[in-house]
Prior knowledge:
By secondary structure, the protein is of the alpha+beta class. It has one domain (about 5-60). The protein has helices at about 15-25, 70-74; strands at about 5-10, 35-40, 55-60. The protein has a 3-stranded antiparallel sheet, covered by helices on one side.
Amino acid sequence: xxxxxxxIDIEGxxxxxxxxxxxLKLGVERDCVEVKVLVEGNKGLFGMKGSKQxxxxxxLKEPQKNVSRETKQT
Length: 74
C-alpha cells in the first residue's frame, strides 16, 4: 500500500463493488477503513438508460493511540 494514500474516491456498478475495488487498491481489509457513500447508483429505466455508477469515499482509519490502563495490564 502506498503510505501517502489515506483515502480514495472510486466508482463501481454497486456500492459493494466500489468498496471492494477501493480495498484492493489500498491493500487493506474492510475493518481498517471508513466508508462514505457519495452516490448510491442505479440501473436506470429497465437497466438501460440513465444508469449511474455508485461512488464511495474510502478512508483509512486512524490507529488507536489511547489504550486504557486495564488493557495494558492484561
